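Worked example 4.2. Below are the chains of a multi-component assembly; read each line carefully before continuing.
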Amino acid sequence: MILLPMVLVPIAAAAVAYLARPLSLRLGLLVGTSVLHLYAVGRLWNGTVAPEVGGWLAIDALGLLVVSLVSVLFLVIAVYAAGFLQTEPPRGGRVFVSGLLAFLSAATLVAVSHHMALLWVGMETTTLALAPLVYHRHDRRSLEAVWKYLLLSSVGIALALLGTFFLAAAQTSGRPLLLEDMIAGSGSLQPALLQTAFIFLLVGYGTKMGLAPLHAWKPDTYGEAPSLVAGLMAGALTSCAFLGLARITEITMAAGQGEFVQPLLVAFGVMSLVVAAAFMIGQSDLKRMLAYSSVEHMGLLVLGLGLGGVGRYGTVLHLVNNALIKGLMFLAVGNVVLVTGSSHAGAARGILRRAPITGILLLLGLFAVTGSPPFGLFLSEFTILNAAIGQGHPWVAAAMLALLALIFVGMAAVVLEMIYDPPLTEAPPVRESVLLVAGPIVLLALVLLLGVYIPPALQRVLTEAAWGLGGGGAR
Amino acid sequence: MSDLHELLLLGVVLTNFWVLGTTRLSSAIRATAIQGALLAALPVALHPGWSLHIIGLAVGTLLVKAILLPTFLSWAIREAAVRREIEPLIGFSGSLLLGTIVVALSFGIAQRIPLPESESALLIPVALATVMIGLIVLTTRNKALTQVVGYLILENGIYVFGLSQAERVPFLVELGVLLDIFVGIFIMGIVVFHINRAFDSMDSTRLTELKD
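Applying the procedure described above to all two chains together yields the following structure tokens:
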């Protein structure tokens, strides 16, 4: 019994954190719980875990990847939050810490649940847990952001529920909505209902991922939420939403519906790249820029999934890279905001002089997030590009290259301006708190490591996950 | 009891049109309350066995959809002093026409969906029509509160669809009711109240500061 405690302990910690009085105790709970969570994830890597709660909770390669990403990113963000909340007026901490811990619980539930309705519950709870955090500043702009976030996410979640109902209707044998039983009995799934279910779940979880044209909430939400919350959303929440889409893809692929599923995924992927590139050129706010970058990377994930073949491996590798790099970038921008009060290229300048460590992190992060070697994203994007050529989609490959180049130009313009331009007002460099730079440095090291060396244990899990995404056919 | 559920489903469609055609918010809220009561009676009419599961579902639905949420919404419009929906994106007669098209479309689509063991021929078309009408209200109206009403109608449609699976898959429909509570607490309690305070009106078209 390890999966259920991994879900329940964080939610219990959230309740305690809400009642606990001093900020230091809350922060201790936050960091302590995330360390414990990471320890449990380590146990999952070392040895097999039996399914729990009647098979509703189980761990497979893809779920293991997602829960590991969530755990690593959460620990980094928890440490960062400890630094961030100390710079804040004493109002907060209470809702903030509880919301973060509730999110950890819900995201873990999504990752380990093998029941499509339970997965949906987890997904709904992630939306709910982070909403008050988006509204952290309590002003007009953040209100507008949280309104759009809630309205659009709720519609997405509602459509995903409808898709789950269709999925239940499509199933004629086995325990209802259980992943293993659906894949094992995929031959007896009703094709028309399964296709309808796929469309609703694609639109529903696609909204939560922020695939174009369902991304409207994303720039506003990421732009207005505190950077660390945006980082958690762009790294962990999107990974969970992708897992929801990946589960239904596994089922439909196992049912032999590849010809129906794959073109849809490729179309959404290419569309997301186009939209991201179009809005990143001339964008001057770095947080909004990163939101469109997230649209781009989500597009790449479904593109690899849709292309199939080696593209699936590219997708799971990209999932890992994306989560790490998004955490790094948003935390670095968070530091920029703390130093200059803005994430806008016009106002936040001279970062290299004012906050040298953050400046260097931002510079290296720029190259990493745009997929330059030797960082991990180069490898995964290259694999997806390879799949486009190998699976007979040369036009997709050409479009992908052109759009990625545009995105690099758009992104570099803003980041380089921020880093190198002279500051608006002369001020001495600030002392950068260890809590605020340690996490991003760890994430950068991991992204760099994944670009040059993938440990054998990870390699095995990645291959296994990619195999599952194809519906688990011939190995 | 075989005809009762058809009557109830017909009532659901009528309340949809009521919401589409009304300018007054209080009237739209009354329509959703009546729709909620119809939906609460629906599982009992569909599965006349008086099982604990069905009774619980009916009571829970009545509480949440017919009493709790409408009361909450009425409280919110009093608090915010909004009465009418002004200048929707598509006019009221236009949306009624659109609603009619949607209902016709739903019957067409429902015939092509091969659902097993459907208890009522009307169940699926009404579910689809309600989902789509909810989306219409959600996307064409300006007041934050009307959008919430649209969202509730969308959910009601999903609930009706879920009833077709209630026997086979336990707790699935209950999830939909859970979603209601989620919306009730969050969109309503926090956001609507604050939109009122920060903007002096609950017009979501005023929420236009963030754009590219």
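Take a moment to check your reading of the output against the notes. Chain A has one domain: 3-469. Chain A has a mean pLDDT of 92.
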